[in-house]
Amino acid sequence: MDLLWLIPALPLTGFLILLVTEGRLPNVMVAVVGAGTIGLAALITLLVGVAYADAGSEPYSQILWQWMAVGDFTPSITLYLDGLSLVMTGVITGVGFLIHLYATGYMAGDAGYSRFFTYMNLFVFAMLMLVLGDNLLVLYLGWEGVGLCSYLLIGFYHDDLANGYAARKAFVVTRVGDTAMAIGLFLLYRELGTLEIQAVLTGAQASWESGSPMCTLIALLLLGGAVGKSAQLPLQTWLPDAMAGPTPVSALIHAATMVTAGVYLIARMHDLYLISADAQFAVAMVGLATLFIASFTALVQTDIKRILAYSTMSQIGYMFFALGVGAWSAAIFHLMTHAFFKALLFLAAGSVILAVHHEQDISRMGGLWRRLPVPFASMVIGSAALAALPFTSGYYSKDLILLTSLDHPAGGVLLWGVAAIAAFLTVLYSSRLIFRVFFGEMVTQPEDRSGLNMNLPLIVLAVASVAGGWFGLSAVAGVLPDGGIDAHEHQGVMVWVTAAVPLVGLLVGCLVFGTRRFAITRFTRSPAVAPLRKFWFGGWGFDAFYQRVLIDPFVAIAQLNKNDAVDAIFRGIVVVAGGLNTMFASSQTGKLRWYAANMALGLATVVLIAVVLT
Amino acid sequence: MMTATAIPLEHLLIVASLLFLIGLTGVLIRRNVLFLLMSLEIMLNACGLAFVAAGARWTQADGQIMYMLVLAVAAAEVTIGLGLILQLQRRYRHLDIDAASELSG
Amino acid sequence: MELVLFYIAATVSVITTTLVISRTNATHALIYLIVSLLSIAVIFFLLGAPFAAALEILIYAGAIMVLFLFVVMMLNLGPAAAGQEARWLSPGTWIGPTILTFILFLEMLYVLTGMPEVTSAIAVPPKAVGEKLFGPYLLAVELSSILLLAALVGAYHFGRRYMRARREDSS
User: Fold this and answer.
1) pTM of the shown model
2) Potential cystine with A400: which of A37, A330, A394, B37 (Cβ 3.0-4.6 Å)?
3) Is the pLDDT of residue A524 over 80?
């Protein structure tokens, strides 16, 4: 387990190598360095995991060095391994490696090949620091690092200005959340005097009794940070626009890893939320609202990646919801399975997009199932897992969440009902996606250009999407307060009802989207439904709202100071200096008598002063 | 003549400064370069007078020696100055000091 | 009695110096300057500095002023140029410098009055001057000779170009 430090160090080394040899290495070398470091890290994660299990699942700390010493504040760079961070690391390096492998094929032929892998390696390093950090400062380091890499990678195709705007939007919106989190960290340090996670958790339990307002405040501030990073309400507007980045980026950052950082944060700081029930309920509400809203929005989108983006938003809403109702392990379990099937969906979508020459509008696709077999199969399996059809990995995790919500004291059935409706909609939009893209008339001729390095990750992820849920997640049992997955055994009719919801949705979806007799396209395209459709399409109006209420006034105020009143002071200094210069320069007339007269005047003045003063 | 007159030093120095200032006025007033040079000579001469007066007050030869050095400097300066005046006349065909102001700005 | 001589010589010197700076004819100004120098020489004699007086007459009035006269003749600055000088020397140009020098003169008066010393009644003969020149001030003599050499070389170069230019002009 001493090799723990290698796990983040390998991607960092990859990043540094690629940074220094920017563009000068041949693409094969770049691929080897870029994907190879992640692969090695995944291997070492495996070894470390085995060693961890052998050692009896005891938490393990590895202190690397002391970061700074300012008075009493002496944080150090320490890596902390327990069940939770092991699971996260496994997901990041495992799924990350597969996505890197895929990207070696997807990004081939792009001029920024080396730059891409540079940023991706930096991202994996930052993400690993986030989950392996022992204190909140290292976590924040990783937090900021992934934010930076997200910006760099969303705006990867920087020739198109719109991508830059999308990247900026992502950065600014998450920055709002980051600020809330930073304030939360400040308060935490002030109250408890430390930022080490384990010390914070025990200190919180000792210092604050149940329902303490300070704890609630800090928990809500941390929730603010998590909401920003995980694209939940109200800071969710950046995620759909972030699809401007390359598809592997969307798969890794905006599906499997970075957007789950918020979930990780709340799970890690679970004691705070146990103390403050109000904050925990707020988490649940945020998750519930997001998952409900996002599933409606996904139903009417036309861009294949935006459908998947809203789907991600919705699924992370499920994770937040799970954390909020006390299904801690279920949330992390769903995080893991979601990483598998969402990455699978995104990568399959990438293969489809590549095959139809970078066309992303699903109305311009159709009838591709025969020509693109591997992406088709991947997408079907991924959607099945997403919809939580029985015996897929998604089934185990999502149904566990829904069943746990039934036990919630504040109206469990209502919560279950809303989440179940969203699950129904999930199946609907998934089937819409499959039928629109793979069945029907072929609009664009596809050209299957994917090689083994793109198909192999799809196959591996497909297997994981199905089998990943069969083994449960015992590793987090010691860490999270609900005793692990197996502790919740649900009985009764609700188990069957919950399992039936996606099946009913599948039936409806096949009928509505798959056949012509029950097709409702005339209904959905009619003018009566158009306002509702437009409302859902624009993400329930959040973007327009923010634009009107926040952005336009800010820009108007900034316009007032267009000539920069503060800078005017400095420009004024320049003007004065210039004036003085002109004045003094005019005294150099070049005339001898003028100079002599001035000398005489000076002599008279000096003698006068000397005479007067003595 | 082995005897000299006991003149009040104050008066001598006032005369010297008066001559010096008259020379200074000449420098400031005249536009013709030659007159400028003449006024400079007046000023140098006045300085020499002051030196000799001081030497006479202490009955030392140092005053006269200093006067001799001043004289040597005046001679050298006049030589070069007159050469410059000739060149000025040659180039610009006038002797106006105010017109020779190219080092302005 | 000799004190009266001093005052007369001083008055002559001041008046002729004033006339020097106010004449428009260059030759007249030079003659007045020579008179001024001669009266200064009289003062030197009264002070008991015969060597300095002789130098004043021989070199200052004799050589330097003659140089000036040569240049005046070369440049033809006689009556012809007097008109130009008169235009340049308008009354308006007098005011500023006069005020300035008057202020300076008042300051000098203030500084110089109240001195009880008188010059000595013993003369300093040339022999004493010579002893000093060959003694402590030997270096000064050498330096002034180098200075004069420099002036000589400079004057030669100035004059040579002038003569060449003159020859080109006339040919």
Assistant:
1) 0.70
2) A330
3) no
